[in-house]
Design a protein that fits this description.
304 residues, alpha/beta, Aminopeptidase, 32% helix, globular
């Protein structure tokens, strides 16, 4: 289905004027300080909290945080959990925080844990996929990244020589992908938009270069008691990609500049929750994200 977008000329990529017009239309809809920083502050008794950078957009600054195991042990494998790469994907942010609040302590004997709960706080506040420069952070994890959101976490991991063995990146696929973000991207690129079928349920995106099918399967099995797994569409696909096993598709993480390509972790996956399903609710979506991380760590603990 083609959709017009109110900014730009069809068939012509956006220039600076169109990007500024898009940015001017955005407005704050929720509060990063209250929703995220406040919860991070409550974690300081159990974990080390570090600021790894700050985003400055106009008059607003956003400090960026990682939450780390207090007793870091060089002999243990390391797990990285990232959320809010796409700020509008709510359960990614809240799932990362709830994992820290509830589940993380159960794995400290086996792993060093580091969590970046909200990589894109401006996107969180304005409910956006892009950053203010109309750049998609989840296509920008590459050298000389055009997105500060990506460059700052990449620099932090490099500076501290953190090389995760497990990386779980928490995402959602929402109805607004079709109603807003895919039409906006087509307008930005000067192309024709074709919406995809939104999967009804939870699914995973594996890295095609590090597929680890049994790892992906273990996560799906852990999530199943919490929420339903997305079935393939009539073409055997999820969001246009072939389903390679129940609830799993794959992309080239590093080639596409995805967050799951951020590290060389052996075990890596991107979660996708569908919060707009009639068969779920916000609490269940967050619980599914936590279950996915738990399933990933329980499997990896046997293999590493």
């Amino acid at each position: 289905m083609n959709q017009d977008y109110p900014i730009g000329t069809p068939g012509t990529p956006w220039g600076d004027a169109e990007k500024q017009e898009w940015y001017a239309r955005q407005s704050k809809q929720r509060d990063y300080g209250n929703d995220v920083i406040r919860r991070i502050d409550h974690l300081r008794e159990q974990f080390d909290v570090e600021t790894y950078g700050e985003l400055n957009y106009d008059a607003k600054s956003y400090p960026l945080f990682v939450v780390r195991s207090r007793n870091w042990r060089a002999e243990l494998p390391t797990v990285l959990v990232t959320g809010g790469v796409h700020g509008y994907e709510t359960s990614g942010v809240h799932g990362a925080l709830y994992f820290l609040e509830t589940e993380a302590v159960n794995h400290l004997a086996h792993f060093n844990i580091i969590v970046a709960p909200c990589l894109s706080p401006w996107g969180y506040e304005t409910i956006n996929r892009w950053n203010p420069d109309a750049v998609d952070p989840n296509r920008s994890f590459k050298p000389q990244s055009p997105a500060q959101e990506c460059a700052l976490i990449m620099n932090y991991l490099s500076k501290h020589k953190i090389t995760p063995d497990v990386h779980v990146d928490l995402h959602e696929t929402t109805d607004t992908d079709n109603s807003e973000f895919r039409p906006a991207k087509a307008a930005l690129d000067g192309t024709t938009n074709t919406n995809w079928n939104i999967p009804d349920g939870f699914y995973l995106v594996a890295d095609s270069k590090r597929a680890e099918p049994e790892f992906q399967r273990a996560i799906i099995e852990t999530v199943k008691p919490i929420t339903h797994i997305a079935p393939a569409d009539d073409s055997g696909c999820l969001i246009g990609a072939p389903m390679i096993q129940e609830g799993v598709i794959e992309y080239d993480g590093k080639g596409l500049g995805l967050c799951m390509g951020l590290t060389d972790a052996r075990f890596v996956t991107t979660t996708e929750v569908y919060p707009d399903s009639a068969n779920t609710n916000p609490v269940e979506c967050v619980d599914a994200q936590v279950a996915a991380v738990r399933g990933a760590l329980e499997y990896a603990a046997q293999e590493l």
